[in-house]
Each structure stands twice: as C-alpha cells, then as structure tokens.
Amino acid sequence: MRQKRLASLLLALCFMLTFASASAFASAPEDQPFKPVQVFDVKAGKVVFTTPNDKEYQEFANKWISSITGLAPQLTNDDSCNYVYRVPLEKPVTISVNGTKLLADDVFLFYCDGKPPLLLVFDEQRRPYLLLFKEDIKPFIKKIGIPAE
Question: Is 41 domain-assigned?
C-alpha cells in the first residue's frame, strides 16, 4: 500500500516535469492568449480537465505567487493529494524566496486533503521548488469546479 501511494506521487511529479517543458504544448490558438489550465487527478494518473486560461486564472496565480512565504518541506508519501492544477503564466515571473531568485512560467497547485495547499514551480534549469503560500484557493477551486463543492 505504501509503495502504491509513493508511486502515485511519483507519477504526479512525472506529470509536472513532462508538462512543465515548453514543448509539451503547441502554441495557444490565436483567440486564446494563454496555454490552457489543466487538472491532473493523482489517483487516476491523468489529466481529467482542461479549460481555457483567462485573466481571472492569471490573477489567481499572481496572488498565490505574491503570497509565497517560503520553501515547503518535501511531499510525504501519503495519498491525501488528490489534484494538481497547472496554470501557465502569461509571461515568466521572477520569484524570490529564501534568498533565491528564479524565473517561472508555470505554476502548479497541489491540493491535498487536510493540508495547506502548495505551489510547485520550475526554474530555468527545470529544477523544482515546492513553496508555501497564504492566499486562499477557494475562489480558484470554485471557478475550476474540481473537486465539486
């Protein structure tokens, strides 16, 4: 059972690495200025929802980034993380955390039952940074509709 939970988290991280690469998406259609927002179901092991990215999603992501409080401890090997949301940013954002500056062009939100949400970003060398933040994610969850309230 423990190996299965660890495998689920590893699968989620593989998803993050795969979809964090610039080549993972074709360019956005002319009428869509941003790459789409995606929801990855950790238990199902796949993207279960894709929706057009818009100014409101950009505002959510920018608020999360503005409220970063520091680096997060590593994820544990439990099965409480049900969903990971990918919000591609309109333009790369510089994030300063604990004396480190990094440039990120995607934000990944980890939604885990009974735990504070976490952000995952990748720097220019594709090194992962797991971050704590304090912005409320309820408006984002309500808009995207997963999980249903």
Answer: yes
pLDDT at position 5, please?
42
What per-residue confidence (pLDDT) applies to 145?
A: 95
Give how far the C-alpha of residue 46 lies from the chain's centroid of Cα atoms, to the nearest Å.
14
In DSSP notation, the chain reads -HHHHHHHHHHHHHHHHHHHSGGGSPPPPTT--SPPEEEEETTTTEEEEEE---HHHHHHHHHHHHTEEEEPPPPPSSS-EEEEEEEEEEEEEEEEETTEEEEEEEEEEEEETTS--EEEEE-TT--EEEEEE-S--HHHHHHH--S--
Per-block average pLDDT, block size 10, for the chain (149 residues)?
A: 42 47 42 83 94 97 96 73 94 91 95 89 92 96 90
In a domain, 149, yes or no: no
Q: How many domains does the chain have?
A: 1
Q: Which domain holds residue 11?
A: 2-22+33-144
Length of the chain: 149
130 in any annotated domain: yes
Q: What does pTM read for this prediction?
A: 0.80
d(CA 40, CA 93): 23
